[in-house]
Design goal:
With 163 residues, this protein is of the alpha+beta class. The chain has one domain (7-162): Alpha-Beta Plaits (2-Layer Sandwich). 33% of the residues lie in helices and 18% in strands. The chain contains five helices and four strands. The chain has helices at 27-42, 79-88, 91-96, 123-136, 155-162, and strands at residues 7-16, 46-49, 69-76, 110-116. A four-stranded antiparallel beta sheet has the order 2-3-1-4, sandwiched between helices. The longest helix has 16 residues, at 27-42. The radius of gyration is 16 Å and the shape is globular.
Length: 163
């Protein structure tokens, strides 16, 4: 699922902690946030990530009323770039240990969508997309990382595909 230069791949993922972010049990996770975010930023295909007001991790941004809920919102050039970061970078080691810090989700915890290159997603739009995915299932408005939809075609490409 490679994007055209006109579209980027956005994703929101949420997780519910076992204990508050500042709890001692989460110290290793919190200590790794800056390093993992730096890995993301240096991964080829990375475009943007949500940060808190101080430039720190989006884990400190509130999206839902639940104080144990943390979020991550990023934009990538392609699905493949996000997939590489998620599973093949230093992030993967922490992903494999997620049950130490997070509850097992009982419903979709990640939503993906294609957006125009240069646009910046908002937390409100991203959570709306996740809520809609949970209520209505996958659509072009929001779909699962495990089953990504292809990037939209630009007008010129649509004309080429119709020939």
């Amino acid at each position: 699922m490679t994007a055209t230069g006109d579209f980027h791949f956005a994703e929101l993922n949420i997780a519910r902690l076992h204990r508050p972010l500042d709890a001692a049990d989460n110290a290793e996770f919190v200590a790794a946030l800056d390093a993992v975010n730096l890995i993301a930023e240096r991964t080829p295909g990375f475009v943007w990530r949500l940060q808190d007001e101080d430039g720190a991790s989006s884990s400190y941004v509130t999206a839902y009323d639940d104080p144990l809920q943390i979020i991550n919102l990023t934009v990538w050039e392609t699905v493949e770039a996000l997939r590489h970061f998620t599973y093949k970078s230093g992030h993967g080691a922490y992903l494999r240990r997620r049950r130490e810090w997070f509850e097992v989700p009982s419903q979709p915890h990640m939503v993906c969508w294609w957006m125009r290159a240069g646009d910046v997603p908002t937390v409100a739009d991203a959570t709306r997309r996740l809520d809609r995915l949970r209520a209505d299932g996958p659509s072009t408005d929001g779909f699962l990382f495990t089953h990504p939809l292809p990037a939209p075609c630009t007008t010129g490409e649509a004309e080429i595909h119709q020939s």
